Structure formats: structure tokens, C-alpha cells
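(Protein data)
===
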Amino acid sequence: MRRERLGRWLIAIPMMLLAIATIAPMLYGLNISLKTRKDYVLDRLGVTQTFNVQNFIDAWTNADMGRYFMNTIIVTVFSVAILLVLASMCGYALSHLTFRGSKIAFLIILAMMMIPFQVIMVPTIKVLSDMGLINSFPGLIIAYVAQFLPFTVFFMTSYYSGIPKELTEAARVDGNGLFGVWARIMIPVGKPALISMGILNALFVWNDILIALLIMQSPQNRTVMVGVSALRGQYPDNVPTYIAGVLLAVLPIIVVYLIFQRQISAGVTAGATKG
């Protein structure tokens, strides 16, 4: 019993420290966002006594955060939908279909996961510019799909590899074609992994600054994270308003994670153990 308790404490203490390190910056930011500019200058570390919600109102109205939120929602929904459809089809093909070059294709996908966006940044922007897709939602969506598709395909392939081939073969015997097997078997069975990948990719797209900043050059087409970055220049001497804008931008991410944290954990665990 003593060894078990000691083992639990050895696990609990680092987790507690990690939780504190994660929560403390958010609480500190919330404390700053509720201060007036004068209170922040006089006492940056003290607990606020004013609870000034005007900072959130200014960040939302003066910085056009409503437009940025709508732009980000549009880009996120379409990017995630395309990613899940393509990754699910590719994962099914690589895990259950036998064709020449399948192993080479899978190795290429693994290699693409190791290439950071900074390496392909210039050619990506050049290609999108030649196609006339700079400063457009389709261009940004294509860039996100290209960036996050390799990992999503790898994850779905790993998950689908744990599904018995007898199940798909039985569906083929019942008269289903390749599309029918994918729609009737792989999609329902792969629902946990699809939900997990959908949430993770949504968080990736929502949090991105670099890709959106390079492609969306017009202020009206900015995403929410790029808009928040612009707040620093709009309110250089008003840190509470800037921090309020940051909190508004990350609030949807926190809410989504709190709601779907079980699905994320279940999907990632399943994808890690299958195949």
C-alpha cells in the first residue's frame, strides 16, 4: 500500500505542477484584462479591484473581432471537413486495399510529416499566387489541408489497420463497392478517430497565425489570431485591452476542449494502440 501511494504521489505531483503552469498564465491574463490602463501601470502584478469589462467590449467592437471570428469559423469548418473526408478515404485505401506502390505512398506521407511549413513556405505561396488564390478563403483552406493532411492520413491509416479485413470483405460480398464499404463500414467504425482528428485539426487551424498571415493579406479577411496580433499595434500602450482580445480569441478553443476532452483522449488512445 505504501508503494502504491508513493507511486501515485510521484505521478500526481508532476501533473499538479503542469496543471498550475498551464492555468496560471490564463488567470494572470484574466486579471490583467479586468484592470484599467492606469491600474495596470501602477500595479501590474496585483489583483484587480475594478473588474473593468470595457476592455472586452473595446477589443470586440473596435478591432472588428466579430468579422475575424466569422472568417475563422468558415475556414475551420471547410478545412476540417475536407481533411476528414480525404484522410478517411486515404486511410481506408492504405490499410485495406492492395495496390502497387501502397507502401511507398505511406512512406512518402511519413516523410511529409517531418517537413515543417517554414521549409515549403515560399513555394506554397508562389503556387497559390500563380493560381490567384492569395487573399482568398479557398487559398487558405487549400494551404491548411496540404499542411495537416499527412498527419491525419497517418492517424486514420493506423486506426483502420486495426479493423479486421474480414469485415470489409463481407461488405464486398454483400454487394458494396469501394465507396459503399467506405461509407457504410469505415466511417461508422472510425467515428472515434474521426471525431478526435476533427477536434485536433480544428484547434490547429484556429490557432494558426503564420499561414493565415501570409495568405490573408487584406485586413477584412484576417482570421481571429491574426486579428489579435494586430491588436498589439492598435493598442500599444493599452495592455489590458490587448489581453482581453487574446482571451476572446482563445475562449472558443478552451470551451471546445472542455466539452470534447473525453473524445479527444479516446480517439488518440485508440489510434495509438490499433494497428
